[in-house]
Amino acid sequence: MARVAFEVDTELSPQQVISMLTDFSQRRPELWPTLARELYCVHEITTTSAEVQEGSLRPTLIWERDHYDWSIAGWVRWTVQESNYSKPGSYVQAIVQEAASGGSRVLVEWNRTGIGLKGKALIGLVVCSPAAQLSGEKSSSERLRVQRGRSDKNRNDLLQFKLRHYQAQAR
Questions:
Q1: Using an 8 Å Cβ cutoff, are 125 and 105 in contact?
Q2: Is 157 contained in some domain?
Q3: What is the pTM of this model?
């Protein structure tokens, strides 16, 4: 399983970040612009979990049905149930902590195994990204030190954009 870990600091409170990750309303594709509205379907939602199909049309059609779990405070994990590119059991998790200076620190762990040529190629691209190189074989504390000093600017900028976009939509 390919693993990439990174962290992002944001001015949003931990509750706002968790709300953004677990907002399964019809506006989810607006909050997460890479999601295709036509591939978005909520199958079931409870107070601490959801079964959701999501996907993207670009750069190629990908979709997955995920089980989202946020039963532990400050933690959200989405696990693949079925997909056209990622093996069931693959997952992403976010741990959201209050930052010392206010706002939140979001620790993201991305664990995926590709299926088929498309899935293996897409996941291979992520693994070759600068963020993946930082999460290589270093210890956790060393990796976090390196990431704080030399974070993947594009990934960080994208998540910051999404967090700001969510904050604006929530107002």
A1: no
A2: yes
A3: 0.77
Q: Which amino acid is at 150?
A: R
Number of structural domains the chain divides into: 1
Could you tell me how far CA 87 lies from the centroid of its own chain?
A: 16
The CATH number given to whatever domain includes residue 11 is 3.30.530
The domain containing residue 114 runs over which residues? 2-27+73-170
What is residue 28's DSSP assignment? H
Instruction: Give Cα separations from 127 to 1, 42, 132 (angstroms).
Output: 10, 29, 5
Tens place of pLDDT per residue across the chain (171 aa): 788 888 999 999 999 999 999 999 999 999 999 999 999 999 999 999 999 999 999 888 999 999 999 999 999 999 999 999 999 999 999 999 999 989 999 999 999 999 998 888 888 887 776 655 544 444 333 333 333 333 444 444 555 555 554 445 444
